[in-house]
Write a structure and sequence with these properties.
Number of helices: 17
Shape: globular
CATH architecture of the largest domain: 4-Layer Sandwich
CATH superfamily of the largest domain: Aminohydrolase, N-terminal nucleophile (Ntn) domain
Structural class: alpha+beta
Pfam families: GATase_6, Pribosyltran
Bound molecules: guanosine-5'-monophosphate, iron/sulfur cluster, magnesium ion
Family: In the C-terminal section; belongs to the purine/pyrimidine phosphoribosyltransferase family.
CATH topology of the largest domain: Glutamine Phosphoribosylpyrophosphate, subunit 1, domain 1
Distance between the termini: 19 Å
Function: Catalyzes the formation of phosphoribosylamine from phosphoribosylpyrophosphate (PRPP) and glutamine.
Keywords: 4Fe-4S, Glutamine amidotransferase, Glycosyltransferase, Iron, Iron-sulfur, Magnesium, Metal-binding, Purine biosynthesis, Transferase
Number of strands: 23
Radius of gyration: 22 Å
Number of domains: 2
Helix content: 25-40%
Strand content: 25-35%
CATH class of the largest domain: Alpha Beta
Largest sheet: 7 strands, antiparallel
Strand order of the largest sheet: 3-2-4-1-10-9-11
Enzyme class: transferase
């Protein structure tokens, strides 16, 4: 998911800014979109299934008037893909109204949920984020920042949160900093966003990343920071591999440069003789440029992407995913015929994409197709907000590299090593989660089979 928060009592049309910001975060979730605005503690909102552009009309944006806005684009990991599960979540409790947007996934949500239900609490959605809202509401006798801290002390998992209540905009990043969140400055206010690429659209100046275990409270046009938990940094390395936009900077590292580094390192780890390097657009493009630079094999275009088809992975079921690969990519026959190709993709999860593409390239006359993957084999499920399937559907968990090579029909197959990936992001590779590759989770996770907590 993607979240945005804008503080700006002096800003006219704050919902319009939230809309543009969400647009820049669209790649983080395409199922639903929503904006909530806060005017003197009164919250109005609009959310619907669909892309940002489909959900909001001018009329709707005009109606959302306020001093603070938060927005959310959703990509479901827990809870089905229904409008009731769209965010921001808006709840009314004794302490007033709260709107909350959550990127991440709680690993102990069903436990807390059961506990709250035993006390008669009613849930209206099947998303884990509602647990956070209900916990906050329980501590209604306290000031909001204390109530939030109380709630946070109960939950485990990944969360980048934007919350508005009263005159405040609040941002929170979990103690591992698994999901990104950063702070920017605009004329007359401040912005919080999942990725810094949203700041460019808003003409905001990047101030800094929110720290792992930090809560920021923006009020009276000032930013106050509270460290509510000790930092145990484990930013998701998959953000760099696939999820984030290349023009974002996360925890001080450019996503673009890390992808290019990854391509270079991959070329060192798995060199091959070939005539041309091509990418699976768009997610493999930057890494392919790095691979080409390092290997001195020219980069060329072999696949053309239909710009109007969404991200294939972010489709809730397998049938949709298969169809969208075909809708999305077409081979540039005249440029690949008779050539030995290196095909670069960012990741192999189920293997659907690679198998389809190798088939297409061979059918169009490619002489050889050498697949190079810019991340290690995905062997373990993610419990922190990236919808990798359960282990039996992860092609890398149940097959050897040679078996995968045969399955996808490639002439050779090479994956980036875990060390290579870590090095491509940070020189020392510290402070990153790589559990889906290594199984080394930054916290205790539910047993396999228990992954979809509310499904
Ligand atoms: P597969 O077809 O192997 O299941 O999917 C791999 C493709 O899905 C890659 O090309 C990658 O770009 C894309 N992808 C999209 N979203 C995600 C995601 O959330 N996680 C992973 N691992 N890959 C994704
Ligand atoms: Fe990211 Fe993988 Fe860790 Fe999940 S398990 S947070 S996808 S690095
Ligand atoms: Mg891809």
């Amino acid at each position: 998911c993607g979240v945005i928060g804008i503080y700006g009592p002096e800003i006219e049309n704050i919902s319009q800014l939230a809309y543009f910001g969400l647009h820049a975060l669209q790649h983080r979730g395409q199922e639903s979109a929503g904006i909530a605005v806060n005017k003197d503690g009164k919250i109005t909102y609009y959310k619907e299934m669909g892309l940002v552009q489909e959900v909001f009309s001018d009329t709707v944006i005009q109606r959302l008037q306020g001093d603070i806005a938060i927005g959310h684009v959703r990509y479901s990991t827990t809870g089905e893909s229904f409008v009731t599960n769209a965010q921001p979540l808006v709840v009314h409790y004794k302490g007033g109204a709260i709107a909350l947007g959550h990127n991440g996934n709680l690993v102990n949500a069903n436990q807390i949920r059961e506990e709250l239900e035993d006390h008669g609490v009613i849930f209206q959605t099947s998303i884990d984020s509602e647990v956070i809202a209900n916990l906050i509401a329980r501590y209604n006798a306290m000031p909001i920042d204390e109530a939030i801290q109380k709630a946070l002390s109960r939950i485990r998992g990944s969360y980048a949160l934007v919350i508005t209540h009263g005159q405040k905009l609040i941002g929170v990043r979990d103690p591992n900093g698994l999901r990104p969140l950063c702070l920017g400055k605009i004329e007359g206010g401040y912005v919080l966003a999942s990725e810094s690429c949203a700041f460019n659209v808003l003409n905001a100046e990047f101030v800094r990343d929110i720290d792992a275990g930090e809560m920021v409270i923006i009020e009276e046009n000032k930013v106050r920071s509270i460290r509510y938990a000790e930092e145990r940094k484990a930013l998701c390395s998959f953000e760099f591999v696939y999820f984030a936009r290349p023009d974002s900077i996360m925890d001080g590292q450019s996503v673009y440069l890390s992808r290019r580094n990854a391509g270079r390192i991959l070329a060192q780890e798995y060199p091959v003789e070939a005539d041309m390097v091509i990418a699976v657009p768009d997610s493999g493009t930057v890494a392919a440029i790095g691979f080409a630079e390092e290997s001195k094999i020219p980069f060329g275009e072999g696949l053309i992407k239909n710009r109007y088809v969404g991200r294939t992975f972010i489709q809730p079921d397998q049938k949709m995913r298969e169809l969208s690969v075909r809708l999305k990519l077409n081979v540039l026959k005249e440029n690949i015929k008779g050539k030995r190709l290196v095909l670069i993709d960012d990741s192999i999860v189920r293997g659907t994409t690679s198998r389809r593409i190798v088939d297409l390239l061979k059918a169009a006359g490619a002489k050889e197709v050498h697949v190079r993957v810019c991340s290690p084999p995905v062997k373990f499920s993610c419990y922190f907000g990236i919808d990798t399937p359960t282990r039996k559907n992860l092609v890398g968990a149940v097959n050897s590299i040679e078996e995968i090579r045969q399955m996808i029909g490639a002439d050779s197959l090479g994956y980036l090593s875990i060390e290579g990936l870590m090095k491509s992001i940070h020189i020392d590779g510290q402070g990153l989660c790589n559990a889906c590759f290594s199984g080394d989770y930054p916290m205790e996770v539910p047993k396999e089979g228990n992954k979809f907590l509310f499904e």
